[in-house]
Amino acid sequence: MDKTLIGALDIGGTKIAAMVANADGPLLRLSAPTIKIGAARAVGDQALSLLNTVCVQAGIEPGALAAVGVASCGPFTEIDGMLALATPNICGGKSGRADLPNDWEAIPLEAVLREQFQTIQIEIDCVAALAGERAFGGAQGESNCVYVTWSTGIGFGLCVDGHLLRGKHGNAGHGGHMLMDPQSDALCGCGNRGDLEALIAGRAIGQRAGLSTPALFAAAAAGDHAARAAVEAAAAWLGRALYNLAVILDTRLFLIGGSVWLHHGSWLAPIVQREIDARMPALTHGVLLQPAALGALTADIGALTLVMPDSWRPHWNRTQPWRALAGD
Amino acid sequence: MDKTLIGALDIGGTKIAAMVANADGPLLRLSAPTIKIGAARAVGDQALSLLNTVCVQAGIEPGALAAVGVASCGPFTEIDGMLALATPNICGGKSGRADLPNDWEAIPLEAVLREQFQTIQIEIDCVAALAGERAFGGAQGESNCVYVTWSTGIGFGLCVDGHLLRGKHGNAGHGGHMLMDPQSDALCGCGNRGDLEALIAGRAIGQRAGLSTPALFAAAAAGDHAARAAVEAAAAWLGRALYNLAVILDTRLFLIGGSVWLHHGSWLAPIVQREIDARMPALTHGVLLQPAALGALTADIGALTLVMPDSWRPHWNRTQPWRALAGD
């Protein structure tokens, strides 16, 4: 029997999750709030420590992990040729936000992880999510597909001609920052006005209507006209952005996930689809929208997929062993 | 000595060009106005006929061509699994334009070319141009680069992680139709309002100012404030579109060609660069703009590159044998 063991990390602005798996499936997953104090390497150290804890609790020697896949929030930058995180909602030196108790300009993630592990692959979380969806989810066998997350932020994982796109520093898919409306004064965390994330990111939709986003969606569901118009306008912006991606990349399939879509995708999907279908039929005819299939664990499973032996896939596909895990 | 012979076709809405080459370089190039009457297969037949004429005039048996590379205007569609052209400025059935003397819905290009040639590779002209620029021009050794044409239309060839992007029907790079300004009433030939091509395509810039485009540029060069503002606004739109591509694809290098850039790129480049540099430094820091290096023949050389034996490249790079050819 294949005794290979692999690890996975999902590094986000709110929490870090660590997981170990063997050929039969994930063994254990733990998560913890992302550390934001100390030296800039603290996040990498925390990730290593959490992964070591998962190993110990699962009865594994941490040194036995053959490889570690990492799904991380971005954007990435490079320090000495290795990937580092320049994430505004973790790095106080990057965002200048008073609520971040550090002055980090960049977090040396790859350098710290390589102190313990030789074989690692780090991707933006949406890229990892798409790897997972292509292996086990809704994009199996589809060479031209895009993973979309509509949540606190808007991000994409892109696949064209069967290649997952990475770009010069692994940042391909940051299309949440594409400019959509030059007249808008909606402000994005990145400083842009009128980019996609400024217009429709989770909190932004509610804020502009003077409500919390859940309250806005509840009002829309209860038939409030203004609330409904605000939510439908947000879905239309997403549709225009997906249309843009479809003509740039000649995509066939969009898989949409993230908390907003998870809760409201079923009634918003026709609005998004209409914006895609309304233009350039030579490129948009037959373009499909589907909900992402792997749910809240999509980035975690994606991180495993990045380093998983191909020979594991048929068994995992058949048994879907991640279903036993709880997300958070 | 390598006696391989290859052919190339450059199929545009205005003219078709055919070329043959051997290991030493191109032997002959001819062009003719694109046919727009008869059966839908007429364009493919004309391309074959022109290529046969080039062969005969070059003293070559047409059957001796080992492969034919094709750079074509788009968009492509598929008929029976083979690429066909659905180009609005050739197909009367597609555009409904009264000045097109045909009712073609789609031109069966690949099917007709395959009647004579087994080994062909067909790409959108900007994709072929990027293949040429990566082999012999300004993008050598650069894995994350975009070719941009600013001419009658706006098109892109995209390369990410060393892969030329094609998409589900070879239409990747149609970002000239990305939506830029939802308030704009500028109308694109595709029916979109406010997409990039509607805002800045060659004729559109002049039309909106009530002038021919050359007259507008001449007025701008002569110091007319309104003309200068119109041209600078167009360059800023291009810059915003390139910024969008840079965050979607994590691009390092933009190579810009096409007639507008060829004549005015040197003074417009800083405006375009400024729009890229003004946003998301983690992704845009170090992004370069350069003029395309292969000039008017870029798509033709690109078409040859698509089917050229790798062993020819060092000699072609050294001798730049295409310089003996005249473009049109």
Quick overview of this protein structure:
2 copies of one chain form a homodimer. The first copy, chain A, has 328 residues and is α/β, with parallel strands linked by helices.
Distance between the amino and carboxyl termini of chain A: 32 Å
Helix content range of the residues of chain A, please?
25-40%
Strand order of the largest sheet of chain A: 3-2-1-4-7
- Helix count of chain A? 12
Category by helix and strand content of chain A: alpha/beta
Largest interface: A-B, 47 and 47 residues
Biggest sheet of chain A, in brief? 5 strands, mixed
Provide the succession of SSEs of chain A: EEEHEEEHHEHEEEHHHHEHHEHH
Radius of gyration of chain A: 20 Å
Task: Tell how many strands the DSSP assignment of chain A holds.
Answer: 12
Low-confidence stretches of chain A: none
Strand content of chain A: 15-25%
Write down the overall geometry of chain A.
globular
- What's the quaternary structure here? homodimer
Mean pLDDT of chain A: 95
